[in-house]
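User: Predict the structure for this protein chain, please.
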Amino acid sequence: MTRIGVPRRKVFELGACALAGAAGLLVTARARAGTEPSTTYEEIVRRWYEAWEKKDQDQFEALMADDFTFTSAAGDDHISKRAFKTQCWDTQVNFIDRFNLERVSAIGNEAFVKYLCHTKNGKSFRNVEYFHLRDGKVEAIECYFGGKSTFPSAVSNGS
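Assistant: Here is the predicted structure, written as structure tokens:
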């Protein structure tokens, strides 16, 4: 039997390197898990637009977290669930016919959506929205559009 002599110092160095490598793999795995596409959240986002199309207020409200906020270029700065319902749903839902979801990208608990919205009078406009989701609900939305002239009501009225 042959013995190989390895100094203790070398054994400790190798052990420390192995531990550091293992820790690095865990960090990488966790980081990668947060960037994987989220089918469940993508489905929630799709149901959000479906609620608008079907004018399904119960589904719409069920999808929003209690602390839901909405932000947009129209001066909406983290408005509450109640304010969103009053200022957006109640005033715009009847002008919307349907959405063509051109791009839905959900990663972790975030999603970006680019859509073409068709109004009931045959006109259309495009928006991009950023969703933050938590526990199966929409926690926050940031809406990016050109201005009030791209609201469903403005497009429908020809403004």
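The first helix runs from residue 8 to 33.
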